[in-house]
TrEMBL record:
InterPro entries: Glyco_transf_92. One of its GO terms (cellular component) is cytoplasm. Its EC number is 2.4.1.-. Its main location: membrane. The chain crosses the membrane at residues 9-28. Belongs to the glycosyltransferase 92 family. Keywords: Glycosyltransferase, Membrane, Transferase, Transmembrane, Transmembrane helix. It is found in: Membrane. It comes from Cepphus grylle (Black guillemot). This is Glycosyltransferase family 92 protein. The keyword Disulfide bond does not apply. It is a single-pass membrane protein. The keyword Membrane applies.
Length: 431
């Protein structure tokens, strides 16, 4: 049971009021005359090259467009998920073309670089424009000037224009797959665990992976479980495999992970009841419920008006193993067998364990990796006795002796179904 005294409720109320005020102020700023859409041309046709690329560089080569989304929560606006240089990009404009009259409107954009840049020169950015009231544009172009030729500008489809009914309950967002990723066995085990726990869709922002991993991804795409979003960010920017800026000439951290997560939130805003933000080596493991649907139903009843649920990360070092579930046919598959790693590191004094999230995407405005930056409603820390993140990776406390680790076999509750399902996938892909 989640508990909080009067002080907690007062603090939550203050947070809600503060966020509501921020949203209101943000919308009022957009309502200034300079940001209102202006007709610059009439009787034209909506022209320009429609682009389907995941990442599109504008001519200034300081602005990169991922995708625009209609966002009716803060008025009639288009919110473009992008990446910009936090100092060099001073102004941008949205060019809307209204059909069938052919009127072209230009709106000055509010450029909102996310606060969690971690000192890199480029950061995830919301490019927000008021739409014309007289039409619901289907495409938008982004330009550095309110003047020019619309035929020379790439056009982007505005997603989320039409309301949809939820097609899935849970979507997992994995960003980003890079470094010739080849942890095949653990990836298959994670996906099969997601499915056991109630996931219908896994979205992967893929930069690159091994040929064997490509084969596994192809299987899951054809099955309908996985959707691949191409993520060639290193074709545009010098990327770092670290999240911190190391003053080494790189442009953006961790292959643009934060931008991908924000895009995944908006991409699934109207089609998934919940979005899970985690990595492929992480599993949110319920301890009091059989699956995520039951767990989230209980958590929502206990925490009304909450849109963000945070789960604590716990390391199960892959360097410490057990002989149980040493399945011979799996030994030829590259990667980690998570069933053999059931010893977790103890909490460290004065160190807060990072968290990952299950969110209601309709209540999120901006997200980071371990928390949301802007949201409607409350965020709740889920106690460890309800669920924890099983994170099998290299140890953080590598010098601890085995007897100092905590044996935790909660994962084994699913061993029978997991082994059966993994064997089915391996027989059709790897073995």
């Amino acid at each position: 049971m989640l508990r909080g005294g009067k002080k907690s409720y007062f603090a939550a109320a203050v947070c809600v009021i503060t966020l509501t005020s921020m949203v209101t102020i943000s919308y009022l700023r957009l309502q200034r005359p300079s940001h209102l859409p202006k007709i610059i041309q009439e009787g034209s046709r909506c022209r320009g090259r429609i682009t389907n690329s995941t990442i599109t560089a504008l001519k200034d080569n300081r602005t990169f467009i991922i995708s625009p989304y209609f966002d009716g929560r803060e008025g009639k606006v288009t919110r473009v998920i992008g990446i910009v240089h936090h100092e060099d990009v001073k102004q941008l404009y949205c060019w809307f073309c209204c059909q069938p009259n052919g009127k072209i409107y230009v709106s000055k954009a509010k450029i909102d670089v996310h606060s969690d840049r971690f000192e890199f020169p480029y950061g995830a950015t919301d490019i927000v424009c008021l739409e014309p009231q007289s039409c619901d544009p289907t495409h938008v172009s982004i330009h550095q000037s309110p003047h020019g030729d619309i035929e020379q500008l790439p056009r982007f489809e505005i997603k989320n224009r039409k309301a949809e009914t939820f097609s899935v309950d849970f979507t997992v967002c994995i960003s980003a797959m890079f470094g010739n990723y080849n942890n095949v066995l653990q990836f298959i085990q994670s996906v099969e665990m997601y499915k056991i726990l109630g996931v219908q869709k896994v979205m992967i922002y893929k930069n690159n992976c091994s040929r064997l991993m490509e084969k596994v991804l192809k299987f899951y795409v054809e099955e309908g479980t996985v959707e691949i979003i191409p993520w060639p960010i290193d074709s545009h920017l010098r990327v770092s495999s670290d999240w911190r800026f190391m003053h080494d000439g790189t442009h953006i951290g961790y292959y643009g992970q934060i931008t991908a997560l924000n895009d995944c939130i908006y991409r699934n805003m109207q089609r998934s009841k919940f979005v899970v933000l985690s990595d492929a080596d992480e599993i949110i493991l319920p301890l009091k419920h059989p699956d995520w649907k039951t767990m989230m139903s209980s958590l929502q009843k206990q925490n009304p008006q909450t849109g963000v649920f945070l789960f604590e990360n716990h390391i199960f070092p892959k360097t410490v193993s057990t002989h149980v579930f040493n399945i011979s046919s799996w030994n030829t598959v590259p990667g980690v067998n998570i069933l053999q790693h059931v010893h977790r590191e103890p909490d460290r004094k004065d160190v807060i364990n990072p968290k990952k999230m299950i969110v209601d995407p309709r209540k999120v405005v901006q997200t980071s990796v371990h928390s949301v930056l802007r949201a409607y409603g409350k965020s709740v820390d889920v106690p460890m006795d309800i669920a924890l993140i099983y994170h099998c990776r290299v140890p953080l406390q590598g010098k601890l002796p085995r007897e100092s680790l905590i044996r935790d076999t909660a994962l084994w509750r699913y061993n029978s179904s997991l082994i059966t399902n993994v064997n089915k996938v391996l027989s059709q892909t790897v073995l």
